[in-house]
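Q: My labmate handed me this sequence with no annotations at all. I'd like to see what the chain might look like in three dimensions before we decide whether it's worth expressing. Could you predict it?
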Amino acid sequence: MKTAVRWYRAMRGKSACGPWRGDLGEARGDAAELDLGAYDEWGQWFDSVPGWIQAAYAIEDVEDAA
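A: Here is what I predict for the chain of 66 residues:
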């Protein structure tokens, strides 16, 4: 079966500085460790320039769990 999958990674300018992650929160955690972003007191995420989160979407084959 094919399904849509989202991947995220931390970026600095045009360079990747973190691995592809299947979870946005993990990619934001990578960026935060590198001082490329942070959450404010209300829980809103902010990228710190030159940091940003790259997102990619793919169609992948997934085996049925049944």
